[in-house]
Amino acid sequence: MKIFHGIENIGRLKKPVAALGVFDGVHCGHIKILKGAVKQARKIKGTSVAVTFWPHPQKEGSLYSLEHRLRLIAKLGIQASVVINLNPHLRKLSAGDFIKNILVKRFGVKYIYVGKNFKFGKGARGDVKLLNRLSREYGFKVKAFGVVKVNHEPVSSTLIRALIRTGKLKEAQRLLTRPVSVLGTVIKGSSVARKLGYPTANIDPHHEVTPPPGIYAVTVIYNNKKLYGACYIGRKPTFGISKEKHIEVHIFDFKKNIYSEFLEIRFVKKIRDDKKFSDTSVLAENIKKDMISIRSLFMPSH
Fold this sequence. Notes:
Layout: E1 2-5, E2 16-20, H1 28-43, E3 47-54, H2 66-75, E4 80-85, H3 88-91, H4 95-106, E5 111-115, H5 128-138, E6 141-145, E7 149-150, E8 153-154, H6 157-165, H7 169-176, E9 181-187, H8 192-195, E10 201-204, E11 214-222, E12 225-234, E13 246-251, E14 262-272, H9 280-298
Parallel strand pairs: 1-4, 2-3, 2-5, 3-4, 5-6
Antiparallel strand pairs: 7-8, 9-10, 9-14, 10-13, 11-12, 11-14, 12-13
């Protein structure tokens, strides 16, 4: 998938079918829109394009980082993504001018795929009604998708964020159609876990929403390989509570130096809550028990 940051460098794309949206989380509702654009582009021998925005237009805490979002969009078969930087100039652009100057003049868009409740442009005044009206003037077609409901509840990134924060990972997984995960870069840590016999990769999650503190059984995606491990999320209470929440993952049978590289951590099961132990030897004993139970989950023969 080609990625264009900003609209300045985009050449003319062949018969673009544009899926328009923030697509934060790339949940089941977003997947429907994006896959629809891929299908239509194939049908007309055009180009499927995801037109997305950064930072989040509603100034909400993002469910996923931009990098994570783009990786998931690419997996759906989208051929190009355009990341529109919501700078002060673009925030002032009216919805009509956004359609005319960016989607029509810059892209030469043939089809626009959106969710029925999507709003855009200055003051979020642009909507499907405006798209339909201007489609007749500029000669593109619009397909609007209704809100997807699961168990009679509308699926939204806001709902998924709340489910992850409160530890309802199975419910969030159902709405995402895949395991809850965090994508981040590996950074230097304090090496405390290494001294306890379980070296960990410390993760900077790039402002992604993370599950509550605790020990989790996880799968780890590194260089498209699936590995197994244990993830700790918390403030290290045994060592005096840290101001920041730490995310560390111990990958089983893995010794590679991976500083500055990306890891995706997929949460499989919560093993226990984070807690303060009387000293480091008791903590080490508990970590050992955690590792045994997580290994047996993934590798029953161990």
